[in-house]
Amino acid sequence: MQWETVIGLEIHAQLSTQSKIFSASATTFGAEPNTQASLVDLGMPGTLPVLNAEAVRMACKFGLAIDAHIAPHNIFARKNYFYPDLPKGYQTSQMDHPIVGKGHLDISLEDGTVKRIGITRAHLEEDAGKSLHEDFHGMSGIDLNRAGTPLLEIVSEPDIRSAKEAVAYVKAIHALVRYLGICDGNMAEGSLRCDCNVSVRPKGQAEFGTRAEIKNVNSFRFIEKAINHEVQRQIELIEDGGQVVQETRLYDPNKDQTRSMRSKEEANDYRYFPCPDLLPVVIEQSFLDEVRASLPELPVQKRERFEAQFGLSAYDATVLAASREMADYFEAVNSVCGDAKLAANWVMGELSSLLNKDNLEIDQSPVSAEQLGGMILRIKDNTISGKIAKMVFEALAAGEGATADEVIEKKGLKQVTDSGAIEAMLDEVLAANAEQVEQYRASDEAKRGKMFGFFVGQAMKASKGKANPGQVNELLKKKLES
Amino acid sequence: MSMHELTLRQIASGLANKDFSATELTQSLLARIQAVDPQLNSFITVTEELALSQAKSADERRAAGENGALLGAPIAHKDLFCTRNVLTSCASKILSGFKAPYDATVVEKLAAAGTVTLGKLNMDEFAMGSANESSHFGPVKNPWDLTRVPGGSSGGSAAAVAARLIPAATGTDTGGSIRQPAALTNLTGLKPTYGRVSRWGMIAYASSLDQGGPLARNAEDCALLLQAMAGFDPKDSTSVDQPLDDYLAALSQPLAGLRIGLPREYFGAGLDARIGEKVLGVVEELKKLGATVKEISLPNMQHAIPAYYVIAPAEASSNLSRFDGVRFGYRCENPVNLEDLYKRSRGEGFGTEVKRRIMVGTYALSAGYYDAYYIKAQQIRRLIKNDFVAAFNEVDLIIGPTTPNLAWKIGEKNADPVSAYLEDIYTITANLAGIPGLSMPAGFVDGLPVGVQLLAPYFQEARLLNVAHQYQQVTEWHTQAPTGF
Amino acid sequence: MALERSDVEKIAHLARLGLTEAEVPQTTDTLNNILGLIDAMQAVDTTGIEPLAHPLEATQRLRADMVTETNQREAYQAIAPAVESGLYLVPKVIE
């Protein structure tokens, strides 16, 4: 049987506010346990929440960026369950009246097509603390520093059809929240977490299959693996005559498998009701207009501009616009060198492989955009060849010079363009290869092409790569034809 | 006159005239509490050290030229207002050892005004009750008859003020918990408009209904205390950012032209007829002062009790989830696992009535019942609010009995909690609608005090205090003290 | 519809209230009495009435995004039943 995968994702993005959603404690990651847990965060009796304006603004930014309806009245509700990392015994969240309503996000697939993924809603809520499972004589330790950190839970429609699409969607959300400056996107620190609702159905069937929810998958790679594994598990289960149960599962990256989670509230009766300590949040149109005006250029807009303004291919524009840092870097290079295509090639080529190799983010690049742009200028004015440029780039990366010019100077990489000098050098090369010159002259046009390349190679070798390749070609041709 | 007989107003003059110092007054009252309170059980904690240091500081402030109306005034707080480093128990075992790490806004504001805190007052556990019998620290006795209840949940506050242990106290009112004990102990007690007094640090029973307020011997003292307690608090999202009236200045307003409404539903079955007569007696006095009276209707009043006993327990079931034995308070011995920790800490830590209400609320919010209970109750809540809005188009003030019955015998209603719930019939509508209400002494039946309730539109606390004060200028009921106290 | 013993046990579990064997029957009776009182509400016609969650129908005030809290761990944990290395201790949490 042919199976179709249906995936919906719930992404929890930690909003990068200074203080928590309902208290004035810091949200800094990695502080000593419980040093960022205030009376409110600890759920001390008598304490009350007051909503952080910035969390509301950030949620609105996101909503506007996905073309969503922003609810003029949205309401916080309590989700009641007992868990030690949940100090009040309820999570303050939004249920029936989320701040962000229906919207959508376009994702680029590997085959170059664009797919629109529906976003059902996005709502504000507070994060829980953490249970640390190191053994304190048979006890667990609770750290409530994270409790009360603002989260935006972004719920997609079940529009996603493969693990790869899921990854593309999460990457697009990741890029978007970083563009908007509302989440640092640091998945390793849990700033962006993903729950995957996965089901399968026979191809052509309209109804959805029973879904399983894989909780807290925290990297792009694990999202793909966890979904693929879960899809396989469900198909095998059904084909063996079994049935998928609706449940929560955990992905274990070490074993590459998902397993059923028994904990949390088995009965799952969360007894949602409007939080009586918080009043309805009203979003005025004037506020939305102001937020809209403050929105940065978004990935889609940037991609379109790169194509139109710089004549980049759709692929190049997509890659460069994928992150705000990459796009900013590219534009900085371009503003120095004034050649978008060369800038794009270098950013996506040498620079990206360098960063990949050393596992660096672009804002940690050892070669600055100014340095790279300056180097490209030297390619353009024929000071160096493309090949020499790679040496210059490596030298810049290794910190062997502050600018391309300094490296070129120090290493004597300046291209030789004096035709007299090139001619003298060519004469030596031809003299040393007299036999090949004879053969060349005796050959027909078809064979000559390949042989010509040999002489060029010898010439460049003799000049240690510094001879201007154009001039070498031209002069060599003249000499061989004469 | 002995110092313990003085009202807040008289204390203010005494201090201003240097008849006595705050320290002398405090020492005298502390001694009286120690001698008398064993009969009443109105205090859970007496904060002698704190009181003496606050009194000393008040004397110093006065010597330095300050002259606030509450500077040096002794009071005590209901034991659900958090007081820094002092046990704040909500009269519950589950808050064993809970020395609050912070002060409630009300506590802070009153301290800033110069009041001296003599201690923390007994109450129904988590403010759930109307007889002060559900306290982990034992029942409070009514100074008018030690075999009877003082009302609740602010029963300790009422008993202590009525017995002249303190001139005034703070209380909270979720369904009548200030007004009903005030009525049963011959005091004046005010529940302000929802949002008028900050709830920060006031341990929640039902967040959308709870309001703090004063209990005192007369309206003037309530005005003094409310002036200092009330006001906008950015720490409470439900606090209202609206300027306070000058409550003291409003007291002397003449009542000529005041339109009073008598809701016919307040005088139906269930009301002790002798109480009804006292209410009409008050109406007659107010007429003499220039008020006009007409009958009105609050047709949905009878639905208030069922609606209240859904909404309050529902909110409570969630509010009380934080008492889990993890970060503060009582934790059971040797929990074998997490579930055991929760179930035994809460099972052993909460008393019967609290557990009952948590369960009612849990049920009302649970899947499949939410609409039939919670949503329905909230719809009724709107009907009740609408009744008041309509009534206040016709009249300035509503008057009726505070309670249907006189103070009952301790233990009398224990077997049947529903019978005790019905005692809230006249008071809970004000909480559901959020309007202010005041109870004041209206006479005696069988030697027991009777209270009359005044209700006013939103934010008209000044009007309530004004009417009560004017009535108290021409009557003596409020000056009566229980024999032996 | 009256609650049965099993309903009461389920509610007590949801609320994490340990009831002793002896408490269950009595609790069941009392809860049924209370629900009897509450059920009177069902007779009220509330068609088209908007539920009222807050008496004043005001709207939420927002707080500026500023950190004003400082580390008070020592004071806050002084009243905790069990702490170690700055953590609150609970019986083992099993995922």
Automatic annotation (TrEMBL), chain A:
One of its GO terms (biological process) is glutaminyl-tRNAGln biosynthesis via transamidation. The keyword Cell inner membrane does not apply. Keywords: ATP-binding, Ligase, Nucleotide-binding, Protein biosynthesis, Transferase. Its EC number is 6.3.5.-. It is an enzyme of class 6 (ligase). GO terms for molecular function: ATP binding; glutaminyl-tRNA synthase (glutamine-hydrolyzing) activity; transferase activity. Gene3D superfamilies: 1.10.10.410, GatB domain, N-terminal subdomain. It catalyses: L-glutamyl-tRNA(Gln) + L-glutamine + ATP + H2O = L-glutaminyl-tRNA(Gln) + L-glutamate + ADP + phosphate + H(+); L-aspartyl-tRNA(Asn) + L-glutamine + ATP + H2O = L-asparaginyl-tRNA(Asn) + L-glutamate + ADP + phosphate + 2 H(+). Residues 328-480 form the Asn/Gln amidotransferase domain. InterPro entries: Asn/Gln-tRNA_amidoTrfase_suB/E, Asn/Gln-tRNA_Trfase_suB/E_cat, Asn/Gln_amidotransferase, Asn/Gln_tRNA_amidoTrase-B-like, GatB, GatB_C_1, GatB_Yqey_C_2, Gln-tRNA_amidoTrfase_suB_CS. It holds the Pfam family GatB_N. Heterotrimer of A, B and C subunits. Belongs to the GatB/GatE family. GatB subfamily. Allows the formation of correctly charged Asn-tRNA(Asn) or Gln-tRNA(Gln) through the transamidation of misacylated Asp-tRNA(Asn) or Glu-tRNA(Gln) in organisms which lack either or both of asparaginyl-tRNA or glutaminyl-tRNA synthetases. The reaction takes place in the presence of glutamine and ATP through an activated phospho-Asp-tRNA(Asn) or phospho-Glu-tRNA(Gln). This is Aspartyl/glutamyl-tRNA(Asn/Gln) amidotransferase subunit B.
Automatic annotation (TrEMBL), chain B:
It holds the Pfam family Amidase. The gene is gatA. It is an enzyme of class 6 (ligase). The active site is at K78, S153, S177. Keywords: ATP-binding, Ligase, Nucleotide-binding, Protein biosynthesis, Transferase. This is Glutamyl-tRNA(Gln) amidotransferase subunit A. One of its GO terms (molecular function) is ATP binding. It comes from Pseudomonas fluvialis. The keyword Nucleotide-binding applies. Heterotrimer of A, B and C subunits. Allows the formation of correctly charged Gln-tRNA(Gln) through the transamidation of misacylated Glu-tRNA(Gln) in organisms which lack glutaminyl-tRNA synthetase. The reaction takes place in the presence of glutamine and ATP through an activated gamma-phospho-Glu-tRNA(Gln). GO terms for biological process: translation. Residues 24-465 form the Amidase domain. PANTHER family: GLUTAMYL-TRNA(GLN) AMIDOTRANSFERASE SUBUNIT A (PTHR11895:SF151), TRANSAMIDASE (PTHR11895). One of its GO terms (cellular component) is glutamyl-tRNA(Gln) amidotransferase complex. NCBIfam families: gatA. InterPro entries: Amidase, Amidase_CS, Amidase_dom, AS_sf, GatA.
From TrEMBL, chain C:
It comes from the Bacteria. Belongs to the GatC family. PANTHER family: GLUTAMYL-TRNA(GLN) AMIDOTRANSFERASE SUBUNIT C, MITOCHONDRIAL. It catalyses: L-glutamyl-tRNA(Gln) + L-glutamine + ATP + H2O = L-glutaminyl-tRNA(Gln) + L-glutamate + ADP + phosphate + H(+); L-aspartyl-tRNA(Asn) + L-glutamine + ATP + H2O = L-asparaginyl-tRNA(Asn) + L-glutamate + ADP + phosphate + 2 H(+). It is an enzyme of class 6 (ligase). GO terms for biological process: glutaminyl-tRNAGln biosynthesis via transamidation; regulation of translational fidelity; translation. SUPFAM superfamilies: Glu-tRNAGln amidotransferase C subunit (SSF141000). Allows the formation of correctly charged Asn-tRNA(Asn) or Gln-tRNA(Gln) through the transamidation of misacylated Asp-tRNA(Asn) or Glu-tRNA(Gln) in organisms which lack either or both of asparaginyl-tRNA or glutaminyl-tRNA synthetases. The reaction takes place in the presence of glutamine and ATP through an activated phospho-Asp-tRNA(Asn) or phospho-Glu-tRNA(Gln). NCBIfam families: gatC (TIGR00135). Its EC number is 6.3.5.-. This is Aspartyl/glutamyl-tRNA(Asn/Gln) amidotransferase subunit C. GO terms for molecular function: ATP binding; glutaminyl-tRNA synthase (glutamine-hydrolyzing) activity; transferase activity. Pfam families: GatC (PF02686). Heterotrimer of A, B and C subunits. Keywords: ATP-binding, Ligase, Nucleotide-binding, Protein biosynthesis, Transferase. It comes from Pseudomonas fluvialis.
